[in-house]
Amino acid sequence: MSHTMDLRTLKTPALLLDRPKLLANLGRMAARARTLGVRLRPHMKTAKSAAVARLALDRGAEGIAVSTLAEAAYFLDHGIRDILYAVGLAPAKLDEIAGLAARAGESPRASYDAPLSARGADITIVTDNLPAARAIADHPATHRVLIEVDTGDGRLGLDPADPELIEVARAIQATGRSRVLGVMTHAGQSYDARDLEHLAGIAEGERSGAALAAARLRAAGFACPIVSVGSTPTATHARNLAGATEMRPGVYMLGDLFQAGIGSCGPDDIAVSVLASVIGHRKKDNAVILDAGALALSKDRSTEKLANGDCGFGQVGDLEGRVMPGVTVVGVSQEHGRVSAKSPLPFDAFPIGGRVRIWPNHACITAAGHDVYHVLDGGTEVVAAWDRCRGW
Amino acid sequence: MSHTMDLRTLKTPALLLDRPKLLANLGRMAARARTLGVRLRPHMKTAKSAAVARLALDRGAEGIAVSTLAEAAYFLDHGIRDILYAVGLAPAKLDEIAGLAARAGESPRASYDAPLSARGADITIVTDNLPAARAIADHPATHRVLIEVDTGDGRLGLDPADPELIEVARAIQATGRSRVLGVMTHAGQSYDARDLEHLAGIAEGERSGAALAAARLRAAGFACPIVSVGSTPTATHARNLAGATEMRPGVYMLGDLFQAGIGSCGPDDIAVSVLASVIGHRKKDNAVILDAGALALSKDRSTEKLANGDCGFGQVGDLEGRVMPGVTVVGVSQEHGRVSAKSPLPFDAFPIGGRVRIWPNHACITAAGHDVYHVLDGGTEVVAAWDRCRGW
């Protein structure tokens, strides 16, 4: 990969990461976790970067969540040993998970009942159903398991009051090898909330649902040391997390236009953008064509759902990071992006070969198209290149 | 990457490529090119695979088109030497292009006027504007250039009748180093056509516009040995390509639901699919949750535009490749896909840990999330792994 030291010469398209904004985002969420009295286990599915994870851990995060086993292996390779694989288990993955846990260097039978801080690292997995629970129990390795409960998202998870919750827990421990360590939930419906009162209510439902499930498991004899909740919107707006032990926001690290639109961050907190070059003008159409399209920006249209915040495929700004109000990427093909605005574009700001920055709708999806962050210290100089993990 | 030899054990999610369907698609388009009397220069932006390119070249394709310089470098590394970089030039890329052309092993000043088949390989670039033309002329290396014309797509390209066409050609050759080799156009509006008569009309506009531009350049003294047209829909439905010398379809190699929906291929011609595992049931919501979401399938919603063909984020089928009519991926989050249907789902067909295949809306974008094709010979055995190129 070609890599130069300034946004005026860096090869385009390229993913940029503003380190001061990243650090502010990390610090703000760490403070939230302290205020709420829970551990912060950042979900690394957004940043997918060991450098970013290390900064978060240095600022008070304890352990991480991941969305793929490729991430688990990557972060283990970088010395991070407390990993929650937070996507519901496909039982065929148990061998690979056991292999990763073995790499983590700890006897898989050791010290589940010791305080978390005294234990070595491990891979914790998640399920919500009896067939997977039985597969876990029957697997020759020992697994650490959270049971997923649904607190309104409707994706995965048992109802916290469902009798099957206890059956699943018993099934997991049926052979005496694997262990239920608690519950997890993700109130993803927070992405549909549009006001802070509504968000606080969703956060309260997430907390109370997880706490109820944990209480029921404890009443049935399962210790449940982990009660894991969280999304960036609920982590940002929860008023208390009594009964939860940790939260797992992820996109807060980078921020994006959608999160800004629903109040999880300010527009100036977005740490990630895509650098692109102007390759054509369509003056009669009031449009400029960039060399960043569907692969560099993604086809995510999250901001379409925001009443006054539809930014097309991204918000356009200048190299110094100043937004051009109303100027967005209105269309993409694979490697072309079309910039336009309701008012006449200032074509002088878009000479052929000129460069712009594009703030993404959805950082998780846009960043996934890139293998590296080009890191800025707030200006236009590229001070580092941080790799990203990808695949499954 | 873990890699096993059957769809029942392959790690999920995974990108699958059915080789017999691929070969049939390659053969059909090669026959089209012969019938139409033009060279076939397949656009490798879809397949991004040297193995696929080689199969196409073995079946009569001559040269390739690419959408990124990363692709150009990758295919050069695999011995393919006639490469059209078919995205409008950002002038800062000229140094890298010159470096790639030098790697191609030919003196950059050699034999532009020799028959194409007698020349060595090279990188041909594209522009549509005077600033880039001047940058090409001023660059110390020699470049081979096509001028892009717009035949209705409205993305990049000069109007074929625009006086600036001749100015751009003169500017490119102003210093005597670089050379205009002809014109190219892409009638991308063919993706919006819904009947064959309309498609044939768009193909005719693409042909006639390119031929007009070439005739005007020839009248101004530019030889124009290359007149390059094409998209998969227009290549499939053109009635004649008189005046064109080559066509550049790409997605025809893999096919997808959108191309099937507009008649570029049949539903059984789609050679690419995504393997996924069932990780949860939402029986009360008539839904099944898979471990393939926005990153494995993409957020492309091309089929939303088809009157009766909206397939959500993909069409679901069984391991043997049999479609389940009406069963689609109705929603995605990063690593979760939600399968549902208007009629009750056959939950017995979706046991936890069971596997399905998903046909994509848009092969170019879905495949871009994956680093490898797991190749099938029509059954469920994985007979090869073919790498893919990515990035810029």
Structure commentary:
Two copies of one chain form a homodimer. The first copy, chain A, is 28% helix and 22% strand. By secondary structure, chain A is an alpha/beta fold. The first copy, chain A, has two domains: 20-254, Alanine racemase (TIM Barrel, Alpha-Beta Barrel), CATH 3.20.20; 265-387, Lyase, Ornithine Decarboxylase, Chain A, domain 1. In chain A, the strands form two sheets. An eight-stranded parallel sheet of chain A has the order 2-9-8-7-6-5-4-3. A six-stranded antiparallel barrel of chain A has the order 10-11-14-13-12-15. In chain A, helix 3 (69-77) packs parallel to helix 4 (94-103) and helix 5 (130-138) runs parallel beside helix 6. The interface between A and B is large, with 60 and 60 residues.
Could you list some keywords that capture this structure?
11 helices; 392 residues; alpha/beta; TIM Barrel; 2 domains; homodimer; 28% helix; 22% strand; Lyase, Ornithine Decarboxylase, Chain A, domain 1; eight-stranded parallel β-sheet
